[in-house]
Design a protein that fits this description.
By secondary structure, the chain is of the alpha/beta class. It is built from eight helices and six strands, in the order αβαβαααββαβαβα. The protein is globular.
């Protein structure tokens, strides 16, 4: 059965009513045929799609908010992980526990501690699979996606996986180093972030992503896509705000 196609909508606008659903839309097990098809909305989104298709194994999607970096990364990763003709068995999403970097301070077990950080991916997967709010949960049950906080990354090897390191501007140099050195055979990794949006508060931590970018710039296999204001697709209001903020910061340095 051929995959259905729909236009991607990343802006904050009412979603159109879905009047036609596949016969498997309520099936518990999700397959590649249940995944919507999305087209790039900007030149840099298209550049990422082309780099991904070319087989790039290490990528950084860097730039301003509202440009769809995490959305397109998760879309392509799930598309490949659900394809039986690829070696990838799962998508692993990794985040840092900011603002509570020491996740041990949060109540509950590991699962309960990490649930709060999974909300964005629940929302994205709901849209990727035709407004199915249970999509993220179903994919976890099928062991096609997993979620991890950097606190638990040491000592493991990620093989046969597509690793998405999200909000990487909130990671210290050691966190980024730990993740990068976990990548095993038949795996690829995509970093998403913008150092201007960091939630870090210790001055010594703020150089984490900048240092990482300087290091990976010397790696021929590492590809970076820089998302600019013209790539904002979330809404016109977000674009207007970011332009005004950038103008303010450029005129009020220090």
């Amino acid at each position: 059965m051929a995959k259905k196609s729909t236009a991607v909508r990343l802006e904050l606008a009412p979603e159109p009513a879905i009047t036609l659903k596949s016969e498997s839309s309520q099936r518990l097990k999700l397959t590649l045929n249940d995944l919507a098809t999305f087209q790039a909305l900007t030149n840099n989104q298209q550049r990422f799609f082309e780099l991904y298709k070319s087989g790039a194994e290490c990528m950084l999607l860097h730039g301003v908010a509202g440009t769809g970096k995490t959305f397109i990364a998760l879309y392509r990763a799930l598309e490949e992980a659900l394809d039986k003709n690829t070696p990838f068995q799962q998508v692993v999403v990794v985040r840092s526990a900011v603002p509570s970097r020491e996740i041990g301070h949060l109540p509950g077990d590991e699962k309960e501690k990490t649930e709060v950080y999974q909300a964005p991916y629940i929302d994205i997967c709901s849209r990727l699979f035709y407004n199915r709010p249970d999509a993220w949960q179903r994919l976890q049950e099928q062991k096609r996606v997993s979620f991890m906080i950097t606190s638990f990354v040491r000592g493991i090897t990620l093989e046969d996986s597509i690793v998405i390191v999200d909000e990487c501007q909130n990671m210290t140099d050691m966190e980024l180093n730990s993740i990068m050195t976990r990548i095993g055979d038949r795996s690829k990794i995509i970093f998403c972030g913008d150092f201007r949006q960091t939630d870090l508060y210790k001055k010594g931590d703020l150089s984490g992503l900048k240092k990482f970018m300087a290091i990976t710039d010397a790696m021929p296999s590492f590809k970076t896509v820089e998302f600019e204001v013209e790539d904002i697709v979330r809404s016109a209001l977000v674009k207007e705000y970011i332009l005004a903020r950038m103008d303010y910061e450029s005129n009020h340095v220090g």
